[in-house]
Amino acid sequence: MPSPPQLLSSSQRAALLAFPDPTSDLLARFYTLGPRELALIRERRKPRNRLGVALLALHVQHLGAFPATDQDLPSAVIETVAQQLDVDPGDYARYARRDETRREHQLQVAAALGYTAMTSVHYRQVVTWLRPLAAGTARGLPLVTALLDHLREQKWLLPPITVLERLATLALRRAQREATRQLTLGLSPVQCTALDRLLEVPDRERLTPLAWLRQSRAKASPASILALLSRLDAIRALDLPVDAGAHIHPNRLRLMAREGAQITPQHFRDLEAERRYALLMASLLDRAESLTDEILDLHDRILLNMNRQSRHRQETQVLASQDTLAASLRVFAQAGQALLRAREAHRDPFEAIEQVLTWDTFTQTVEELLTLAKPGSSDPLTFLGLHYAAVRRYAPRLLDRLVFTGIASTRTLLRAVTILRDLNATGKRTVPSGAPVDFIPTRWMPFVLMGDQIDRRYYELCVLSELRHRLRAGDLWVAGSRKYRDFDAHLLPAQEWRTKAGPTALPISLDYADYWGDKMQRLSQELGVVTRLLARGELPDVSFKGGKLSVSPLAATVPKEAEQLASRLYRQVPRVKITQLLLDVDAWTGFSRQFTHLHSGEAPSSTTGVLTVVLADAINLGLSKMAEASPGLTERQLAWTAQWHVRDDTYSAALAEIVNAQGRQPLAAVWGEGTTSSSDGQRFRTGAQGRASGQVNLRYGPEPGVTFYTHVSDQYAPFHTKVIAANIRDATHVLDGLLYHEADLQIEEHYTDTHGYTEHVFALCDLLGFRFAPRIRDLGDSRLFIAKRDDPGVVLEPLIGGRLNERLIATHWDDILRLAASIRSGTTTASLMLSKLGSYSRRNGLANALRELGRAQRTLFTLEWLQSPALRKRVQIGLNKGEARNALSRAVYFHRNGEVRDRRPTAQANRASGLNLVVAAIALWNTVHLQRAVQQLRQQGEDVPDDLMQHVSPLAWEHIGLTGDYLWEQPSRI
């Protein structure tokens, strides 16, 4: 696949070439003259030459290149150097006009400082050096950034940015060719023929085998699992080389698999043979992993549904037995009263009982109570056996096709799996007496062991249930699975992670003693401050009664004057149709050019087609209805554009263009510096199929749905979004948005609500350099954790939940750092790791150590929260911006009453991305026009203070026409 003609966007080029902000720290570090620079300067007599040579020498050591002839250095830099030389800063303007002198001085400075101009030999070396990085990405920015750092380290003078782009492009193409060669290296003619047959429609069939293999089954049912197992069997029957993708970077393999997934069988046949087989191989390897994960996920949901139904049946039985139990108790109460009277009167007890009830009634009542009191009758497992027939429909094939391995403690469980495989293969029904039972939980024992016999039904159900638990806990892994791999396989290799440079470098001290000592010192200090303030009752808006803290809620922070100002400003903002708004934003940013062709990498030939598809995703209209509402466009045209140009990576690149443009607006600086953000999940209902899939969230009740989880900057720019299954907690995905967005934002502090935090998130945010500040509900009920040497005193004693296990953290410190480095480098994703760690048992050392580290960080945050109303206010304002964004997105995503009808994850992701991009475009368009309105008021002599403007949101939509025919004309002129 050829790389895009323009590897970097215009904003990315500008950011790479821009001179860093000349802060006092930067000036002192890079623009202080030293012995080498002074030696060069002494050879010059004229003040302007001395100043020019000094600036050349300092600039090349700072940025790796000499200033361009048309590039003006920041005045602060010129003045700082001129002051050290005691010359006039204006001399530089006279020096810069003499090109010949400057070029001569550049050669002399480069020779003196050891800098070399790049030659063809250097270019070849650079491409070779870049290839390992290019193997793991298709994005130009990280490659060019790494290349800049490498050239500066080698003291090779930087060539123009276009040359760097060409070098990165060449590295990408070579990485692509190498991956193609690796995937096709071991293919025999028979296997190539088998791959070609995947693209042909068999007789009396409607689909090609490839299209059939791509189909998924969302319903949690035995039939769905059997259908997916058939597809997995079909891929294995191709007998492809098992190690075909072993020597290819996982990211590159995923990129090729994604490209192959988008290509239709008809287009596959048009590709050159080697390219066709490589993409088919990548697609099939990826599909085999996906099928394995889908099978295990459906099995997980089937067992969940079985347990839920069993509990429901048990509860129904209990309710039904209430009348019987009450009648039986009345009979026994009568008998008891008769016995007591007989005892007092010294009468025969049997005669006393016969006077109040018959022996037949008494005998029947005893039998009914014995039935109700039968051991296990109150356990839902009693009814689990009723589902055995359904499980048997797929369990034998599942156990036969999937290969399980695990830690030492799972040995007996794996032996039980082997025994069940043998029973299924031979047709025997009785579990041998020597079958392992050590893995069986105590609760299952009465149902599995019936005297000396093992109940086959409950033994098999118990094995399947324990497999599910151990997979979730990470004690077991499955060959060929992406989600259920060995935890260690997700991380950087243990022997090399510390040597990784660049993106894997963690912004903390890697020495445990330094890191932990500093944290414990801060904890002790903050603990002492809070103890003193709490004893004197001086913590602001905090009360402490009955051993429980209470923090008063914040008062409304938006003054009425700000609301009146917002109303005035929006009256001056023109009314606009959503199509015109998108055209305007595209004219300002060129974001539509980021929707490159999947195969050729070229920009779209039709901007209108791309914008129409994006809008169809954003308003939830769909391509068919959108074509009807868009004169001049057909559904076929839109479907082609969506297939080849609109996908997650192009959405991400286009969103970055809009977010970056928003950050450059002067008004955005009033709202924030682009260094803080918030994230929140917004739930959307799904169709009836969602209920059958088992994706139900306890937080929202029985209605099925999905969550669009979005990160919003302090400048109101929604810079990342993703779709989360309804049964996944928000906190799992907090770090993904902070790490994997493509905008120029440098987020330092992040806010969430209670559902966005766990102690694991606290720990990883600190390790990765983010300040995490969630708004925790019922903060007074949370416990503080302190070092063993600290004494909380009488005042804080009721709030202490325990002592931090420092030894546990120290023992797993290297594993913790390796995990954080793997996440930062992109070797694995934060959400996957948090999901696995959160499901691990309490015996997992790494999960426990990371939790201890998170407890320390959460305690530090809580102590600061109690002291700082400013922190509470920042968090509240940040979360309010996210809520405002959610309100706008609800208004935009209006069709079908905001219900997600798409069943495919990729289609749902496109809906979320389209919605987020349009919301970002509205925020930018409103920002630009609000700026104009403010300028007009100020030109008229009115005072528009920034402290009021910071409360004016750019997320209003009353003036935007979201419905009607979608006509694309020309961008308006401001």
Automatic annotation (TrEMBL):
Alphabetical UniProt keywords: DNA recombination, DNA-binding, Transposition
Stretches the record annotates as Disordered: 675-696
UniProt source species: Deinococcus daejeonensis
Similarity comment: Belongs to the transposase 7 family.
UniProt entry tagged with the keyword DNA-binding: yes
Keyword Cytoplasm listed: no
InterPro entries listed in its UniProt record: DUF4158, Tn3-like_transpos, Tn3_Tnp_DDE_dom
Source superkingdom: Bacteria
Lineage: Bacteria, Thermotogati, Deinococcota, Deinococci, Deinococcales
Family annotation (Pfam families): DDE_Tnp_Tn3 (PF01526), DUF4158 (PF13700)
Domain Tn3 transposase DDE: 581-966
Protein name: DDE transposase
Domain DUF4158: 7-168
